[in-house]
Amino acid sequence: MLNVQNLTGGYGGVPIVKDLTFQVNKGEMFGILGPNGSGKTTLLKMISGILAFQKGTVNIADQPIQTFSPKELAKIIAVLPQHSNQSFSYTVKETVALGRYAHQSGWFQTWSPKDEEIVQSVMKQTGIHHFHSKDIQSLSGGERQRVFLAQALAQEPQILLLDEPTNHLDLSFQKELLDVLKAWTREKGLTVISIFHDLNLAGLYCDQLLLMEDGKLNIHHKPNEVLREERVQAVYQTKIKKQAHPRVPAPQMVLLPEQQEDQQNFTVNASILKRTSERIVIQTPQPMKTLSSGVIGSGTGWHDSFINRRVGLDYDCNDHREEMRLYLKENGFEPSDCVGMMTAVNLDDLSHLFIERDGCSIFVVVTAGVGHAIDASKSSQHDMHLQPGTINTWIFVNGSMTEEAFIQSMMTATEVKTKVLHDLEVRDPVTGTLATGTGTDSILIASTQQGEEIEFGGTITPLGKLISQAVYKCTSEAIAHYRNRMDI
After folding, report:
1. 280, 336, 368, 420: which one has the fewest Cβ atoms less than 10 Å from its Cβ?
2. In what order do the strands lie in the sheet with 14-24?
3. pTM higher than 0.70 for the full model?
């Protein structure tokens, strides 16, 4: 659809964009990225025909852009600049209707039913139809931005050029706007070329990204390749971390602030464990990075309150997460700060251990009962009847863990738990075979993220060895306490 070859240009004979080559296909959402001063807006002006270029070519559908008349070009390309100003006092609808000018002919520029239909349609799609009769001068910056987007869409362009389209828009309208544009690319074959400052929006919505640096091409590729940590850090000169979007296959970047002076070092150990007949609680002075299967706080996150709550064997609730949230609130905890688990075992039977070696330390807490033990390899023989969590394992690491270390630590702890059940000859009551766990076991890995980096947590690594020793001892003791109490 758009082919740019060796494009060079700028202002007053000084090149800002230098020898740029790329191609945009029909129906693509194409993002242009780069720091301030890298030439993004200058590039957009050249491919729109607003600014003449010094060298190179810009072809639209294999035709040089210079061969189009202004009116012909307006039927193909619509432009939404970064700051749109309206000096005349028009209504919203009148302003949008100006987008139909390129499609009208004759001396009197007659208004057709098709013109009316398109204007009404784009006003609805951009969420401005309910104030169509308002004077545009009375609107907020975000509302004006949507009006001028509707005006651009009313041109029915083949290519839509946008300079920071979400500028002035609140979060909900950013999403709505980009959802509309993405839908137009799929349903109408509209090609959208947009400058983005927000790397996350670009990664989420664009099919291809072009990253500029000092007027030159750094890379033109798919978002996942363009938004690499090392590349973004080098071009933008700032610390970032790349992570996957939780719902769609798109890269997302997070800024890494410098360590705050008010952050205090702390160690998790038995001194901060509190236990009653109803719950076990650990609260830390600062949030810890967590990976857990808790009822509350599952997945990854940052939490400073850890609760293992005892419930009866007859506990039954249609919405156990909501019930747990209410329980936490009623007892003075903020659910968003918590990892919350449930257990049906007596909390007097818990076992905990602080262990330190080679500059690394962990604190492990285990509650365990084996009345509903299951052999995972034969789980198909069991009914889907969930009991409150039976073997709950907490592992607090006083150190800074990588993502690999978190996952490997969870694997190590699970392997050790299974080994304990085998050594103690805990059997699945349905199959009679050795059990591997219970149907609702839960686990927590929490890290202070302070001190030297711990890269791995596998079984033979320094951290893995600590986890293996502590989880084996605590799980064995907790099951022994449970069996003694149950007189098994």
Report:
1. 336
2. 14-24, 2-11, 55-60, 63-64
3. yes
Q: Which residue has the tokens 């992570």?
A: 243
Can you say how many angstroms the Cα of residue 186 is from the centroid of all Cα atoms in its chain? 23
**pLDDT on residue 74:** 81
All residues at 6 or more sequence positions from 237 whose CB lies less than 8 Å from its CB, including other chains: 35
Token pair listed for 105:
């002919």
Question: CB–CB of 20/184 below 8 Å?
Answer: no
Partnered with residue 301 across adjacent β-strands are 290
Q: What is the dihedral of CA 222, 226, 228, 234, to 10 degrees?
A: 180
Q: Summarize pLDDT for 440-475 with one digit per residue, the tens.
A: 899 999 999 998 899 999 999 999 999 999 999 999
Under the banding of pLDDT at 50, 70 and 90, the label for residue 106 is low
Q: pLDDT digits over 235-274, tens only? A: 999 999 898 888 899 999 999 887 665 667 899 999 999 9
Residue 431 has what pLDDT? 92
Averaged pLDDT, 325-333? 95
Residue with tokens 């705050």: 260
Quote the tokens at residue 71.
Answer: 């009116």
Mean pLDDT for the chain overall: 90
DSSP-based helix, strand, coil % in the chain, nearest 5: 35, 30, 35
pLDDT recorded at residue 125: 82
The answer to whether the CB of 310 falls within 8 A of the CB of 278 is: yes
Closest to 125 (Cα-Cα) out of 186, 174, 180? 180
In angstroms, rounded to a whole number, what is the distance separating the alpha carbons of residues 273 and 289? 18
Which among 293, 315, 433, 313 is positioned nearest to 374, based on CA atoms? 433
**Structural domains in the chain plus CATH codes:** 2-255 (3.40.50.300), 270-486 (3.60.70)
Residue 483 phi, psi (nearest 5): -65, -40
CA dist., res. 5 & res. 440, Å (int)? 60
